[in-house]
Amino acid sequence: MSGTYKHDMTMMFVIHDALRRELDQVARIAARTTDDPRTLLRTAAGWEMFKSYLHVHHGAEDEALWPAVRAALAGRPDDLAVVDAMEAEHATIDPLLDAVDAALADDNGGAERLGDLVDALVTGLNAHLKHEEDAGLPLFDDVATPQLLMAFGQAHTKRIGPDSPRYLPWLLDGASEAASESVLRVLPEPAREAYRNAWVPAYAASDRWGVG
Fold first, then answer.
1. What are the start-end ranges of the H helices in 61-109?
2. Class at the top of the CATH hierarchy for domain 10-163
3. Cβ(155)–Cβ(64) under 8 Å?
4. Which helix or strand (DSSP H or E) is residue 171 part of?
5. How far is CA 48 from the centre of its chain?
6. Domain boundaries in the chain?
7. Is this structure's pTM higher than 0.85?
């Protein structure tokens, strides 16, 4: 995690790193020439999980983060422009996901479009994540209150719902020990024990992408 913050931003960076990890995998599959990448992605649990958890993250931001940050930045037009940009960038991502899905379902011209669409998704989402880290998170940190942090966390948790046994191992796949501990320490001990003894092994045994 880069930068110096008044508040703990570990979770934001862990989520962003997980999304980048999955984007890299999508790009690798889309570039395959030995198999039909449309079939691999269309049937991959990993593609559905990536979309679902991206929607969780952006939905929680749109509901409980950026509106509160916007209200706190009243009278600061330059900073409000950053919030405008965050929301506008979110609005560009869903159409790209939909376009990739349409290409995956198109048995005629989908294969020809897939590479360019995945490139656009990778470029667009990576650019947004970096912009948020460089410009959005410092604003969030500047105006955050305990109430805002709690509301954002609750919005995120509500959207995950009962999917924590899949989500947490997915989220922390490849995360540092320090980052993992920061995320897990808010859980009650029975949940941390379930994470270690059941959720992580089940995640490790799954073949999310169908490529071994």
1. 66-72, 77-105
2. mainly alpha
3. yes
4. helix 164-171
5. 12
6. 10-163
7. yes
